[in-house]
Each structure stands twice: as C-alpha cells, then as structure tokens.
Design a protein that fits this description.
Number of helices: 4
Number of strands: 0
Largest sheet: none
Radius of gyration: 24 Å
Distance between the termini: 49 Å
C-alpha cells in the first residue's frame, strides 16, 4: 500500500530520532516499526484472527445443525487420515 503521511511535532521528532539513532534505516521503516509495536501492544491482528475463528466455528456449527457436516470420533479421524491424536494424560 502506498500512501502519503504528513507528520508534525512529536511524531515527526520521534521518527527522525529513530532514523538518527539507527533504529530504523528510513522514515518508512520507522513508521513500520511503530505499527508493529502498536500490534505488539494491543494484539490487533490476534483479535482479527479470533473474530475470523469465531465466525468459522459458528458456520461449522450451523452446517452440523443443518446436516451439511457431521462430527466423527477421534478414532474414526485416525482411521480415515492415518494421523494419530495424542491422548491426554
């Protein structure tokens, strides 16, 4: 994604400081690092993935209710796929 951003004041000073200190090679790198830290702090991508997982679970539950999908046992899964499921201790 390409975009033009105008930073003034403190954000501009922080970005310039990151480049001057060698934390970021360019102003663009400084912005990208800031965005990564924003995600690290607030778990934004994780929240989006959780929402997608919830929607998918609801879809599967609906399809099971409508008879479009069915639940199989772990033993049947292993038989069909050849993948062993570790037993809980």
């Amino acid at each position: 994604m390409n975009m033009n951003v105008k930073l003034v004041g403190i954000p501009e000073q922080i970005m310039a400081g990151a480049v001057k200190a060698g934390i970021a090679k360019t102003k663009t790198d400084a912005i990208m690092l800031g965005l990564l830290e924003l995600d690290n702090r607030y778990k934004l991508l994780e929240q989006m993935e959780d929402g997608e997982d919830l929607r998918e679970a609801k879809r599967i539950e609906r399809d099971i209710t409508l008879g479009k999908e069915k639940i199989i046992s772990a033993k049947e899964f292993e038989k069909r796929t050849g993948i062993r499921i570790a037993k809980k201790r």
